[in-house]
Amino acid sequence: MADPKQEQRDRFRAEDPASGPMTTDQGVTVDHTDDSLQAGERGPTLMEDFHFREKITRFDHERIPERVVHARGAGAYGYFQPYQSCAEFTRAAFLQDPSVKTPVFVRFSTVQGPRGSADTVRDVRGFATKFYTSEGNYDLVGNNFPVFFIQDGIKFPDFVHAVKPEPHNDIPTGASAHDTLWDFVSLQPETLHTIMWLMSDRAIPRSYRMMQGFGVHTFRFVNARGQGTFVKFHWKPKLGVHSLVWDEAQEAQGRDPDFNRRDLWDTIEAGAYPEWELGVQLVPESEEHDFDFDLLDATKIIPEEQVPVQPIGRMVLNRNPDNFFAETEQVAFHTANVVPGIDFTNDPLLQARNFSYLDTQLLRLGGPNFAQIPVNRPVAPVRNNQRDGFHQDEIHRGTNYFPNSLGGGCPALADPDDPAFRHYTERVDGRKIRRRSPSFADHYTQTAMFWHSMADWEQKHIVDAFRFELGKVGAKEVRARTVEQLSYVDHALAVAVAEGIGVPAPQERPNTPQPTPSPALSLENNRGDGSISTRQIAVLVSDGVDAAQTIAVRDALTEGGAIVELIAPQDGTVQDKDGSTLAVDRALPTVASVLYDAVLLPPGGLDSGNAAADDAALRFVRSAYRHGKPIGALGASVDKLADMLPDELRTAAEGDSTVTESGIVTDRLSAGATAQDFTGAFTEAVAAHRHWSRPALPS
Ligand code: HDD
Fold first, then answer.
1. Angle, alpha carbons 151-156-158 (nearest 5°)
2. CA neighbours within 13 Å on the CB side: how many for 202?
3. What are residue 319's DSSP bridge partners?
C-alpha cells in the first residue's frame, strides 16, 4: 500500500544533482567554484562576485538554534498499525482499522547535552512520535521513563537550569553529576521518583531499539459518543529492554560518541527494522479517585499490576531520513498536536507543555510556518486563513478572513455531524489559586516502590550511580541533604549511598513506605522474547584459526539474527590452519569490546604468534568479561580463556558447556554433546544480555 508521507516527501525532494550542472540559488549555471573573482591574479576580491557572496552567506547562516533540551537525537520514518479497532474508547481514525498503516516519524534524544554531545551518557531518552494520520498530525512526545522530575511545568526552567551545564563554566557536558542538579534535587523531593529511574540502568540504554517509551501524562481517549476514558501510553520494544553497564557507557563515549545513533541507522539500513508494541492503560472516569495517588501527577505511574497494559498496535521503523538537518533537526513536536478522539487532562505539567512546544519552535525554526517543512507537513489537507510570516512556502489565493462571502464562504466550518476536533466538555469549577494540590504531596511511596521492585544487581547499580553522581558534587551539604532525602525512601539505600560518599549515615525514619513492589519495573522482567536479533558479536580470529568451525558458528549465529564480525589483528585476511584464507571484517585496533554484545573465540583465534596482538585480544576479552558480556570459546581457545578466568570459573569453563550464571560458554562438552549444543548454549547466553554474578578477574 502506498505510504502518503513518503509520496509527499517525493514532492519536496531537491533537484537531482545529476540532472545538470551546478547552479546558484537563482538557477544560474556555475562553471567555477574554487576561486573568487579578483581584480587581477593577485588582486582583491570583487563585490561583484555574486556567486562568492551567495555561497559564503548561505554557509554563514547554516546553523539554527539547537533545541533548548533534547538537542541531540536521531530519527526514522516508519508506520503504525492497530491490532484491532479501539472505537469503544476513542474515535481517533488511526486507531480504528487494523488494515490501515499510519506513517510515523520518531525522534529519539538525550536531554541534557548539546547537539554534539555523546550518546551513552546517563540521561533520560526522548521518544517522540509524530503520527501523520488522515485527520491531521498526532504527536506523542514521550520519554523512556514513565515519570517526570517535576509536577508543574512552571518548575521546568528551574529544573533544566539545574541539570544543564553550570552557568559560569558551561561544565559538565552530557552529565548530571554536578552540584546544581543535586542541589535542586535535595531541595525538591518531587524529583526523587524520576531521579531513582535516572540512577537505574534505564538511563543508559543499550540501544534506542531496546528501550520502552511512555507518554508519561494521563491523557484522555474520547469515543464517538463523547465519553472519556483516562489513558496512559506505553511503547514496548520487541527486542526487550536492555542497558549498558556504567563503566562501558563511559568508555563508549570515547570509542563511539554516536553509539546509539549509529546503531539505529545501521540496523535500519540492514533491514532489521526495530519494532514496538503500543499499549494502553485505561481507567474509566468513574474510577479517577480510586488510586492512592493523583492521576494528574506526572511523578506517578499506575502500576501495571493494578491496571494492565493492553496492547493496541505496533510500530515499525523502516526508513532512515535522507537528510539529517531537513528532517531530524527540523522536525517539530508539540504535545498539543492531537486529533479527534485524543484529549488532554488537567495535569499541570501537560498544560505547560501545551504552551511551550509551539513557542519554542517559533524561535528554533524561525517563524510561524514551520508546519510547512516537509517532515512536519500533515498528510491531511490544510485549509485556513492563517497567512504570511517568515518562510511562507505556499501561494494562497482568495480571501483570508472568516466569515466571508467574497470567497464563497470558504473555507467553511465543519458541519455539526462532521468529525471535527471538539474539546472534551469536562466540567471545571474552582477559584484562581497558586497552590499545589494536596493530592500531589506524597513523593516517597512510589520512589520506594521502584527501589523495592529492582533485582539485587539493579539495586547495586543504583547505589553505585548515586555514589558516582554525588561523589562528583563538591558541596558536602548537598550530598548530605540528598542522602537525608533518600532516608525517607529506604534507610538501607541511604546508608549504602552515604558510606560511599563520605557523609554521615542518616538516622532511621519511622514509617518509611513499604509499598507492594511492581515486578514490571525490573529490567529482569523485560528481557524480550529470547531472540538474539541484531546483537553484535565479535569473533576474534588470527592466523592459524580453524576457518571451517568459525564459519559454521558464524552462520548459525547470523541465522539467529545476530550481526557477527570477524576481528583480526590486521584488516584483510587471516590464514586458516590448513593454509586457506578467511576474510576479516575489522582490524582490532579500530574496534573495542564496548561496541559489541558478546565475544566468541574460535579454535586458534587467540594465537596469532604476535605477543602484542594477542595481548590486545585478551584485553578485549577481559573488558567484555568486566561488563558481564557472554564469552564463548572453542578448542584451544578454551585454555587461553581459562587461564585468565578467576579460579571459581576456570574449572567450569574447562569442563562444561552449559550456560552458567556467569555467561561463559565453552565446547568442552559432556559426553555426546554436539556443536549445535554449543551454539544453542551461546545463543541463550547472548539473549540473556548480561551476566551479573561474576567474580572479579584476577589482576
Ligand atoms: Fe519536553 C522537547 C519530552 C516536559 C518543554 N520534550 C522535548 C522532546 C521530548 C520531550 C521527547 C524532544 C522532541 C524532539 O525530538 O524534537 N518533555 C518531554 C516529556 C516531558 C517533558 C516526556 C514530561 C512528561 N518539556 C516538558 C516541560 C516543558 C517542556 C514541562 C516546558 C514547560 N520540551 C520542551 C521544549 C522542547 C522539548 C522546550 C525543546 C525542543 C522542543 O521542545 O521542540 O518545548
1. 115
2. 26
3. 77
Q: Is 452 a known active-site residue?
A: no
Integer-rounded Cα Rg, in Å, for the chain is: 28
Indicate whether residue 535 lines ligand 1 (CB < 6 A): no
Distance CA 447, CA 488 (A): 10
E strand segments, 595-638: 598-601, 631-633
The residue type at 630: P
Alpha-carbon separation of residue 378 from 103, 130, 136, 216, 691 (angstroms): 10, 10, 6, 24, 46
Q: Rounded to 5 degrees, what are φ and ψ at 485? A: -60, -40
601 touches 550 (CB < 8 A) = no
Residue 139 to residue 217: CA distance in whole angstroms: 13
pLDDT in tens, 654-696: 665 555 678 999 887 555 667 788 899 999 999 999 998 888 8
Q: For residue 373, is pLDDT > 70?
A: yes
Q: Is 143 a catalytic residue?
A: yes
Q: Find out whether the beta carbon of 362 lies less than 6 Å from any atom of ligand 1.
A: no
What's the gap between Cα 339 and its chain centre? 25
> CA 691, CA 687: separation in Å to the nearest integer?
11
Q: Which residues contact 201 (CB under 8 A, 6 or more apart)?
A: 243, 244, 245, 458, 461, 523
Catalytic residue (one of 32, 51, 61, 70): 70
Q: What is the pLDDT, as a whole number, of residue 693?
A: 80
Burial tier of 316 (Cβ tally within 10 Å: 0-12, 13-18, 19+): middle
Q: Which residues, including other chains, have CB under 8 Å from residue 688's CB and lie 6 or more apart?
A: 527, 630, 659, 663
How many Å lie between the centroid of ligand 1 and the Cα of residue 619?
41
The residue whose CB lies within 8 Å of the most ligand 1 atoms, and thus the one to mutate among 64, 70, 105, is 70
Provide the percentage of residues in the chain whose pLDDT is more than 90. Answer: 88
Q: Is the pLDDT of residue 608 over 80?
A: no
Q: For residue 669, what pLDDT is reported?
A: 57
- Bridge partners, 574 (sequence order): 582
What the chain holds in terms of domains, given with CATH numbers, is 73-371 (2.40.180.10), 443-525 (1.20.1370.20), 536-687 (3.40.50.880)
Which residue, among 691, 13, 3, has the nearest Cα to 374 in the 3D structure? Answer: 13
Confirm if 656 and 668 have CB atoms less than 8 A apart: yes
- Length of the chain in residues, anyone? 699
